[in-house]
Task: structure prediction
Amino acid sequence: MSDLEKAARDAVEAADNTELTRQIAAVLAAQQILARQQPQAPACQHQHRQGRSASEWLGIGAAVCVGGVGLAFASIAIAIGALSVAVLALVVRSMWADVQKKGRR
Result:
């Protein structure tokens, strides 16, 4: 892989990471705004709530997004690795065939 291809791949990965960082920052900002808007319950009362709050769902959504991007990068890495192994096997097979032909002469 040439230096230009490596640089291009690194630039694309950096852009993806920058966009992901912006999305996480936006989710965190939304959580802070929601936390400020929710009234605080008096300390003497016990409050039992059902379900999850909006900020919890935003946190879960952000975690799923980050996990999905990580899984996508892992899948790409596995595919590139498998392709590299296949190409290597073909090259070694071709070299072995050439060695065998020269030995028969």
